[in-house]
Amino acid sequence: MKMSTKGRYAVMAMIDIGEHSAGQPVSLAEIAERQDISQEYLEQLFGKLRKAGLVESARGPGGGYRLAREDSDIPVADIIVAVDEPLRVTRCEGDAVDGCVKGQKCCAHDLWSSLGRQMMYFLGSITLDDVVSRRNLALAATVKQAKEHYVRPVA
Amino acid sequence: MKMSTKGRYAVMAMIDIGEHSAGQPVSLAEIAERQDISQEYLEQLFGKLRKAGLVESARGPGGGYRLAREDSDIPVADIIVAVDEPLRVTRCEGDAVDGCVKGQKCCAHDLWSSLGRQMMYFLGSITLDDVVSRRNLALAATVKQAKEHYVRPVA
DNA sequence: CGAATAGTTGACTCCAGCAGTCGGGTATTC
DNA sequence: GAATACCCGACTGCTGGAGTCAACTATTCG
Fold first, then answer.
1. From the alpha carbon of A91, which nucleotide's C1' atom is closest?
2. Neighbours of B65 (CB within 10 A)
3. How high is the pLDDT of residue B96?
């Protein structure tokens, strides 16, 4: 899991499309203007988003990008994963037990993978649509369960 | 919220102390050896951990560090926060609406702060003791609730 | 006392990766 | 065929993390 402005920008741009595309594709110039992100940078990001199949492009005048699927069908996690490179495996990362500590799984290994999973689940369960159509959020009640599940594994 | 090997190392080291300290302080040399982290780097980290009041030090021969509190009383979150600097505010971070987009709160703002909170809650609810005394974990059931709370805010 | 141990501090180097830019493409529309 | 807008790769600057080094201070123990 990784979070940078890259991922943030991508999500913002996707939301922008969701909000302003009325069937018509939305040009990067518009997005750049509205979201205050340089167009050149957006081009980079949208290259990846397109390859990931999250958006479709239309060239020529009147062209731009449109969402490949319903916004209620695009989890935020997909966007992040598409633009943020799969961070290099530093010691203890992902599910593989590559070089944790002396070839063995380090004592905190499960903690990190659990955290990563937690984040992915969270961002995977929230769609573009969710982000657009809501304001003020709070979550708290889930905490206790989170701990329960960590301490006394289900599997 | 930020995650780097810094935070990981710190947690590993703290666990190491928790496991090997039988009343006696544990020296950095030992930890460095067992966890395969350079001692010089550990020195840096422990400087912060000490200032944060998470460990106590004893100098001289036979010296080292010991946990300032019971391991069941040290949430992982505290450790991370102690060593990972409070990341600089890039555009849209923390709770402040500094420079999101043109002075206004950007459309994804709540999403990020919610994610950060989610991580903090998770790591804040897990103590050193939890990490040590468990294996294989899974959490999943919390996801649905997380989404509920995001989409239909309680407050 | 003095030597060995081990924490304390601050400055320093190295480098991957992010943020952002530029220039030249190619497809499409009108 | 001109304007629009996506497409692509290369390039730059720089921050911050990872790790090193050296000199210092406090404590123990013989």
1. D18
2. 24
3. 57
Question: Residue A1 has which token pair?
Answer: 């899991």
Identify from A36, A129, A135, A143 which residue to disrupt to test chain B contact, counting B C-beta atoms within 10 A and taking the largest count.
A143
Give the Cα separation of B107 and A34 in Å (integer): 11
Footprint of strand C on the protein (CB under 7 A): A 2, 4-6, 9, 37-38, 40-41, 43-44, 58-63, 84-85, 87-88; B 25-29, 40, 43-44, 46-47, 50, 57-65, 90
Residue B116 has pLDDT above 90, yes or no: no
How far is C-alpha B23 from the geometric centre of its chain's CA atoms? 24
Write down the pLDDT at residue A99: 63
B90-101 pLDDT per residue, tens:
566 655 555 677
* Integer Cα distance of A124 and A80 in angstroms: 10
Distance from C-alpha of A92 to C-alpha of A106, rounded to nearest angstrom = 8
For chain B, give the DSSP string. ----HHHHHHHHHHHHHHHH-SSS-B-HHHHHHHHT--HHHHHHHHHHHHHTTSEEEE-STT-EEEESS-GGG-BHHHHHHHHS------SS-SS--SSSBTTBPPTTHHHHHHHHHHHHHHHHS-BHHHHHT-------THHHHHHHHHHS---
B108, B110, B137 ranked by CB distance to A150: nearest:
B137
Q: What is the pLDDT of residues A54-110, one digit of tens each?
A: 999 999 999 999 999 999 999 999 999 999 876 555 566 655 555 677 777 788 888
Q: Do B108 and A155 touch (CB under 8 A)?
A: no
Q: Per-residue confidence at A154, pLDDT binned at 50, 70, 90?
A: very low
CA distance A7 to A143: 25
pTM of the model: 0.84
